[in-house]
Amino acid sequence: MSSNSSLFSSIENDLNVLTRNLNNLVNTNNPLLSSATEYLFLAGGKRLRPAIVLLVSKATMGKQELRASHLRLAEISEILHTASLVHDDVLDDSILRRGVPSVHNGFGTKIAVLAGDFLFAQSSWYLANLDSLEVVKLISKVIIDFAEGEIRQGLNEYNSKLSIEEYLEKSFYKTASLIAASTKSAAILSQVAPSIAEDLYHYGRHLGLAFQIVDDILDFTSSTETLGKPASSDLIKGNLTAPVLFALQKNPTLSILIQRRFSESTDFEQAISIVKKTKGIEKARDLAMEHAQVAIECLHNLPNSESTQALKQLVEYVLERIY
């Protein structure tokens, strides 16, 4: 399987331009706010969301050149994603992001909140200038979904009765909504048939869910250095993810530990042990694979091309992160 850099080889130049443009796109006259937003983009990241937008754009445009609106949509998707991460880190009081101190640790909570708000506002401005009402509606709904996802997560902290279905709904709002709306929007800008655009929406939805489930598995199986943030941070904060929910179905003791918020000295280590012994991680992996398979099936009406193949391989790449 290829690395993500080779997967994106056909759009490498476009991604390089995007990276250079991001700081200019969020430029502000306020020096402190500019420093905070610049810090965000210098921290790097996989640029997964804009890469998906560019690949879908190429797959649906055939031999035609990408439009300026495709490139701007890719930039908007990354700005929106980054804005959501800033607010996530404030709400979760996360120490690290992408291996470096989170924005609120470096600049303070007020500046971090304002930086996130500023990025949301900037993305909305660029979105309005795409001159596509359908795309504006799709991407604007993502901002609502981000808030819905955070509210649901907050209301369900340490809720051992949370169902897998409720977990997937929250995961859609927080992660998959942006990917789904971006893939459909790229197709709309290519002026493809509505059925193709809808297929690509579902591709993004299921890819996004698979990606989130894999991330939740990695929270149990990877180190802090690999994750770029503290390992097992979700569970300790009461955010119950797929591995935990599957483990709860097998061992009721885990529910007791969660409900008392790991107040005893050995509670947290015992909870991790239960998740691993009950094969909660393996069950979560199966769930990720189910969504990945559906994502690939959603591409069957696209013409065969290098970009279409890259979209399929991207699904495999997401899964291979857990092996």
Automatic annotation (TrEMBL):
Keywords tagged on the record: Isoprene biosynthesis, Magnesium, Metal-binding, Plastid, Transferase
Record flagged with keyword tRNA processing: no
GO BP terms in the entry: isoprenoid biosynthetic process; quinone biosynthetic process
Cofactor(s) demanded: Mg(2+)
GO molecular function, one term: prenyltransferase activity
NCBIfam families: prenyl_cyano
Family to which the UniProt record says this protein belongs: Belongs to the FPP/GGPP synthase family.
Name used for this protein in its record: Prenyl transferase
Organism: Glaucocystis incrassata
